[in-house]
Amino acid sequence: MKTLDRILIIVGVSIAVFTVTMIVTFYVCGSIPDTLCTCFYSAFGGECGVMGLIQIIKEKYGRKKKDGEHNGN
């Protein structure tokens, strides 16, 4: 299993746990900490965006490298 796949699993589980926790908090208190939710989802959104860029760059440069090998370069 690749590292990015492991991180995506951790991110998914973290988001699920956080969401359930916020639902319980809302049920008990009647509201949730909006700033915490905003920061949490912003951080994980940024993390997933960076991982997406890493994947795109790997595929782009990996494909060029493979093309160069097939052309005899």
Structure description:
This protein has 73 residues and is mainly alpha-helical. It has one domain (3-70). Helices cover 88% and strands 0% of the residues. It has two helices and no strands. It has helices spanning 3-29, 34-70. The protein is elongated and about 60 Å long. The two termini are 31 Å apart.
State the total count of DSSP E strands.
0
The major sheet is characterized as:
none
**Discrete helix count:** 2
Estimate nothing, just give the exact number of structural domains: 1
Characteristics:
mainly alpha
Structure described in brief:
The chain has 73 residues and is mostly helical. The protein is built from two helices and no strands.
Draw up the topology in text.
Blueprint (H helix, E strand, L loop, with lengths): L2 H27 L4 H37 L3
Helix pairs in contact: 1-2
